[in-house]
Write a structure and sequence with these properties.
With 178 residues, the chain is of the alpha+beta class. It is 40% helix and 34% strand. It is built from six helices and six strands, in the order αααβββαββαβα. The protein has a six-stranded antiparallel barrel. The protein is globular.
Amino acid sequence: MTGTGDVDALQALLDRSFTHSSEHLRSIMEPQRRLTAERLLRELPCPAVLNIATVTARGEPRISAVDGHFLDGHWRFGTAGESPKARQLLARPAISASYTPRDGYGVFCHGRAVPLEGAERDAVVAHFGEVYGTGPDAWAGAAWFRIDADWLVGFAMTDEEMARIEADRASRAAAAES
């Protein structure tokens, strides 16, 4: 994120998304579990294994994983330019994505995949090069995308809830060994 306005815009998206979520989702993602924009920016790893859903020409869903980089309040990723995923996103840019690294933590979004061009593409390629220790030639033929989310939520169980979950898990494992 480059400034307070970016954090504010991300927080507004999170707030709008929760407001327009189902009652069921709001019952799970209670206010004390909702991730703020600042917390998302602080906690999301770069890269993160991001699961993305695309749609084939026949309307069939497809899910796959990419290395997602949450930069300036947007997920960004690359994939092989000739891959089915790239072709699907170029033809039908609707996308859903999830990052669920463990029980009790998740970030979910729906939006549009926007192909990266020009300076934005160059900056992302440079970022990927820094992260992976490669030059721009390593990414020749890649298709690069940004997710412009119109719905984004994140949640994390509280430390107390996670401690109870871990204690219950340990208790079940001990009982299974006896």
